[in-house]
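Extended Data, panel c. Modelled sequence:
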Amino acid sequence: MLRQLVSIALLVLLASCKEDPANRKVVGAVSPAGHAFTFMPIIEDGVTDITVTVAWPMNWAFDGSRNPATPYVAAETLLSGGTKDLRPQDVLELFEDKNSYGHLSVRPDHAIGELEFPKEYVDEVVDIVVEMLVRPQVTPEWLARVKDGMRANMEQARTQSSNAMWSATILAILGDQPLRSYLNLPDLDQIDAVTREDVLTWHKETLAQANLTIAVTGAISQADAGDVIDRILAQLPKGDATQLNPAPANFSPRSILVHRPEAQKTSLAIIGQLPSTAEGGDLIDLLALEVFGQAGSGPLFDAVRTELRASYGLQAGFSNYDRASRYMFITGEVETTQLTAAKDVAIAAYREFCTNPNFDALPNIQQATADGTTKNVRSVNVVARTLLELALDGQDTALAPNLGDAIAAFSPEDIAARLRNSFPAAEDLMVFAVSPDANALEGACVITQIEQALTCP
């Protein structure tokens, strides 16, 4: 009975969507002030929220003359420091009372602003955000609080031995260039060194009106969405167009072990280069790695269980350093005495999967992934983020509300071709580990300091 009620409710919802042919249709638009944006209305019963996302291009991470900690400190300070008339706690309470959310974060190549609010609070929320963006309250006390919290979090993260392994991967792949320092912040004193003037300089140079990528979704008309965008941006400086230059990356195969005698666990990471996000293919890569790394029954788990009689929690996925440098990984904790064997088994399983994949589990995984994606992109905020990411990659933004259908449409032949043509060969994979045993990984370049990763052949 419950299933029938859910089905009926879904049919009613879908029917209501079809009454307005413009609903959930992605269009390109331009605000009255001339700001281009991607827009998708969601005019449905029960939907009252609006999400605005803005990506400001940023080159700070690629400039070695800049303090790499500044963007992190600045982003957190600007939208948490309150306004001239409201204390930080007052602003937080105001947003909570109105079920609203504002966040500013940074990546290597963009600062990302996200604002969510119910339509009835558009004026109050937008006014507060504009005040914080245009006239940030970077008080010495608040700046010190942000820096202290950030440093404490970084210090806590570095107590985990696996952090040393991932730090070594960044240095080995990117080399000693500014992007490495930005991603890893090897010198935590750089956090303490960020000044109020640094924050205001970053604010002036980054949060401008030039060369933006913008997406708006939710219970709002296209005209009103354009007005909201103009209100948010109108008082920011015009700025100059920022040319983003991808950082060079070296994914040539190497084997590096970080020796940490005090480590309680041994961790393994196997890494290989994937095509950049601008080339597309993320969805099929996701599906392929879901099949390969499925917990409990995927080819990776089966190989480790069969060969090593172990149930390590190895997982597979992908990530990126910037939008140009994307990689797949196989990672997890292993028994120290079986590190070399675990590496060999994992790579052998990967080789077999790429050359002769077993897709017996594909239908169930594909359906679950497609259904989960379809459900997620029905959320106002999720689809706004998806639109923004597609736009940043130069992909067709009309795909956003239909990503689940796209995942469901892939055939086993499509995935097999992607594995053959776009995934790294097994012999091209990089191997990294951290272990209390310096001899745990046969043939590895053993280092005791992260900077030594540069010297490994």
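The first strand starts at residue 27 and ends at 30. This feature is highlighted in the accompanying rendering.
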